[in-house]
Amino acid sequence: MSAETEADLRASRARIVAASHAARRQIERALHDGPQQHLVAMAVNLRLAESTIDADPDAAKAMLEQLRGEVQATIQHLRDLAYEIFPPLLADRGLGEALHGAIARAPQPVNLTVAGDGNRRYPLETEAAVFFACLEAIQAADGPLSVWVGEEDGAVLYELWGAIHEGPALLNISDRTDTMGGTMTVERSPDGGLHVRGEIPLD
After folding, report:
1. Strands ordered across the beta sheet of 194-201
2. How big is the chain by its Cα radius of gyration, in Å?
3. Can you give the pTM of this predicted structure?
4. Residue 31 is inside which H or E element, if any?
5. DSSP state of 182
6. CB of 184 closer than 8 Å to CB of 172
7. How many Cα atoms sit within 13 Å of 9 on the Cβ side?
8. Where are the domains of the chain?
9. Nearest to 24 by CA among 70, 86, 74, 79
10. Coil, strand, or helix at residue 30?
11. Helix, strand, or coil here: 6?
């Protein structure tokens, strides 16, 4: 490995560490501003319902019904946060199922192709690198996107076509691929979008 390649890899790893710290801080803020505040408010409203139940059972019942909805909303918020950290489908069902789940949440149309055996499992670190690379593209695209994932010559490949913004997302995709010993290329498509191709060796 050349000195330049080693320096690039160190810089890539440093960016991933910095991004991880930033993501943890963002999750902490999201928990504080979302579920934590909701739980505090629900605790206050629950005490109010308890103090009201004897004097005005109907009002207390209405408060409890409202609390039921708030509990469900908070549970969903926590599930969404957990999905952003590491989707359960990725660990339980693999790359294909996790990508289908990500596409179901995408605001724009995404065409997904999982080549070969859709149930094929790879090392979790490889699956996570490919999944989050594709997720970065999905989140950075402002129009329809095509995602292809498959295996060729002892490597897991991903290809992304669409209106993907150039910037932090592409750098993150490159870093995730580089740290797994893979390579990523970016080309401009005839329609003005980007064609991103990544390859992560299984050996």
Report:
1. 110-114, 141-152, 155-164, 194-201, 183-188
2. 22
3. 0.69
4. helix 3-31
5. -
6. no
7. 12
8. 3-85, 88-201
9. 86
10. helix
11. helix
Q: What would the pLDDT profile of 42-93 be if each residue is shown by its tens digit?
A: 888 888 888 888 888 888 888 888 888 888 888 877 777 776 677 888 888 8
Residue 104 burial (C-beta neighbours within 10 Å; 0-12, 13-18, 19+): exposed
Helices 3-31, 57-85: inter-axial angle, 10-degree rounding: 180
CB contact set of 27 (below 8 Å; sequence gap of 6+): 81, 84, 85
> pLDDT tens across 118-160, in order?
678 999 889 999 999 999 999 889 899 999 999 998 999 999 9
At 167 the three-state DSSP class reads: coil
CATH class (in words) of the domain with range 88-201: alpha beta
